[in-house]
């Protein structure tokens, strides 16, 4: 697949770096957002490849003891021999990177943007319009360790990605004020952040983001087009 485009940009403008924003969420959690990591034409090529070739499924999952059809399509890819992933009572089949070679080019592009990273698993999600969504959750499964770096690459329709601070039993800021008292004061703006995830963008959650925050991609009546999202993770 064509990753030459990425190279060409940096060769033409060796001093030009891709713009990245870091949002410090406090207490050792932060998020990095790179709005234009993958050029648009390359992103569309990858979008169409993924849409057509990935063996998408829509599994039944269990949430709070009830069975639901997951409100989006999914697929899982992992290096052989890793601990298996289970979420919401569902254990996806782990496909191999070799089954879908362009995934390795996407992985390379993400590794290049995040020096020192080494992802070995990938969860893919496809949202077929604004009724598809992912509800509030954190990716805090044990197999990712206490401070996972999770890199989220988006193709297709723009959607909002919302991060919200978990209510904590004891104050998260170290004071002894109980959560119930603090919640009565209303939540602060700093407790919620929305990122408009664009075609070709990369969002990275780091540090204690999974321990202290939840995230979602809410339903959006106006989002009609398909969105494909890839979250790269390292299983320890
Ligand atoms: O689609 C997204 O942007 C997020 C997906 C997600 O949170 C997940 O797969 O755990
Ligand atoms: Fe997630």
Automatic annotation (TrEMBL):
2-oxoglutarate binds at residues 125, 127, 137, 215, 227, 231, 233. PROSITE patterns: FE2OG_OXY (PS51471). Keywords: Methyltransferase, Transferase. GO terms for biological process: DNA alkylation repair; methylation. One of its GO terms (molecular function) is cytosine C-5 DNA demethylase activity. SUPFAM superfamilies: Clavaminate synthase-like. Residues 169-190 are annotated as: Disordered. Residues 118-236 form the Fe2OG dioxygenase domain. InterPro entries: AlkB-like, AlkB-like_sf, ALKBH2, Oxoglu/Fe-dep_dioxygenase_dom. Substrate binds at residues 64-66, 140. Belongs to the alkB family. This is DNA oxidative demethylase ALKBH2 isoform A. It comes from Glycine soja.
């Amino acid at each position: 697949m064509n990753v030459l485009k990425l190279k060409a940009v940096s060769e033409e403008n060796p001093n030009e770096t891709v713009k990245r924003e870091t949002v410090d969420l406090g207490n050792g959690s932060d998020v990095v957002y790179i709005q234009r990591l993958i050029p648009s034409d390359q992103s569309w090529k990858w979008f169409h490849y993924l849409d057509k070739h990935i063996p998408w499924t829509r599994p039944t999952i269990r949430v709070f003891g009830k069975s639901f059809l997951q409100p989006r399509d999914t697929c899982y890819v992992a290096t052989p021999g890793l601990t298996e992933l289970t979420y919401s009572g569902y254990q996806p089949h782990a496909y191999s990177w070799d089954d879908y070679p362009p995934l390795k080019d996407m992985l390379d592009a993400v590794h290049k943007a995040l020096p020192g990273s080494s992802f070995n698993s990938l969860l893919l999600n496809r949202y077929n319009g604004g009724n598809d969504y992912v509800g509030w959750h954190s990716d805090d499964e044990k197999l990712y360790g206490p401070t996972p770096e999770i890199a989220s690459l988006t193709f297709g329709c723009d959607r909002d990605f919302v991060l919200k601070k978990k209510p904590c039993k004891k104050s998260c800021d170290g004071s002894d004020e109980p959560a119930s008292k603090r919640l009565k004061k209303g939540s602060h703006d700093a407790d919620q952040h929305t990122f408009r995830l664009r075609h070709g963008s990369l969002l990275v959650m780091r540090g204690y983001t999974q321990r202290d925050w939840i995230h979602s991609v809410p339903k959006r009546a106006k989002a009609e087009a398909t969105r494909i999202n890839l979250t790269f993770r390292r299983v320890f």
